[in-house]
## 1
Amino acid sequence: MKTKVPLSESAADRAILVSLFWAAVTGLSSYVAAIFTTVFEFSGFWRYCWLTICLVMFVTAYCCILLALRHFGSPPAAIETSGKTETPGTK
């Protein structure tokens, strides 16, 4: 008697929300690093350091958005109960 319970919709929604939250945080830090790179007068080392932080945070934000998009449109997992496999919404 195997029972496979699918991920609930709220868990999938929570995963999307967490990914979008981290995308917003890293996007904001990328913006701040870009300001530090261009507005403040630092020596060459610090300017390149802030530019590197800006680019890394931008790529991280982009990846977080892609991770959040992976969860959109995915059908719920099949439910397996007592040897029969049913997809939610069908009988």
Note: The helical segments are 9-38, 44-71.
## 2
Amino acid sequence: MNEQKQILLAHRLALAEADMNEAERYWNGIIDLGRVPKPIWESTILAIIVVYCRSFINSESEGEALNKVPIGRLRMFEGEPELRKLHDKLLALRMKAIAHSDWEHHQTGFDYENTDLTIGRMARTLVRPDFTYQMETHLIAKLFSHVRYVCGTARREIDRAHYRSIPPA
């Protein structure tokens, strides 16, 4: 990878570190509150998923960073199958249930019990997805910490190499 691409990668990795810090801050905040109403819990989990996934979804930015974190090149989840599974689940939820209304997560149906054609009332049901069901809450903080560590380690390595290549003023 040429030096310019390395710098773009370092920028993306720094953004990923910041995203992990933000997601972890939201997570710790909701945990510190203890028992909270379901809408607050769900909205916080939704925000966490969006923030976490930013680094792994192709950015359409024309900026000075790679479009996304290259998890394969970084061997992000080598030896961490549980974290990889949670990572994939969060990305799937973001793509299919949060950012888009895929049928798998947003099904509608005809409600025969609440339909009365004699008065012109037809009813449809909509099942809203629960983003928190079967969420591996015991792994979430570990995932943020792991991704931040891998990204930070790779970024510091690039930064050191780049800094050494700059001629003294």
Note: The radius of gyration is 21 Å.
## 3
Amino acid sequence: MRMGRALLVAPLLALALFIIVIPLTPTEYLIAVTPVYAGTPGFKVKEAYTDKAAYYIGESVTLYVVLAWENLGQNYTLDIDLYETVNDTKVQDLGTLTVPGTTYEATDETELTFDSLTGLTAEPGSTEYEIRVVDTGSGLLVASAKLTITVAEESITLSVAWEDANDDRVIEPNEQVTFTVFITWAFVNASRSYNLFVDDAGEHLIDAVSITAGGGTAQRTWVTAWPSAGARTLRFMLKDARGDVVAERSLSLTVGQAAQPAQPSKASILDLIKANIYLIIIVLACVGAAVVVAKYR
């Protein structure tokens, strides 16, 4: 019995000694290799943003997407789309991307640029969209990110500054006054031509103004003088070709208004008494004291 056990144990001990003493290679002794499992393949949209904070109506959009991946063991073909989240509707097919992954160490990221996108700025307001990345092999959504595109309404404004000839801020009759009109615009979707008018007891053309698409500024000057003193109300207007007012600014001022010197006024008896009340009390007290002293002498 003991001999049988020895015969059984001896080969096992020899095998254990052989494994410990003799160096092993992975190809020769698979039993000595501990398997190492790679991480799960994955994708992520790290960033999704537009090139502008807001757009004018009809302006094209440039979209940037930073896509990252890790632990890829094979090549993946991805379909990238843009969806409107409110209606869950695909509005742009942004194309496909092949991501190489020859080993489980394939980890990287890339920034994708999608420019000249149209149809996203038809109306003013803010709309939420979602970038969706789909693996074409499995049809599964592997990454997504939301962003907002804002479309602003057109804005054209006027502001006016004036300066009189001697720069004392008092407009005298026949004194030349220079008005500077500043035109500022933003989110205009096309270049246009307007006319700048001033209404000063009658409408006068100052000059033409060209406005470019997007935003910008311009300025025009108007010089005048008034022969007589009085109140004046000016209305500066920017008009389109049909004569419609697209922006305006009104300004009120007075010609011949100067600081008037204070006129002396006649003081009444009551005013004199109020102004000298303490002196009167002292005098009456002295008179009273003198009367008392004279009476008891």
Note: The chain has two domains: 42-151, 155-255.
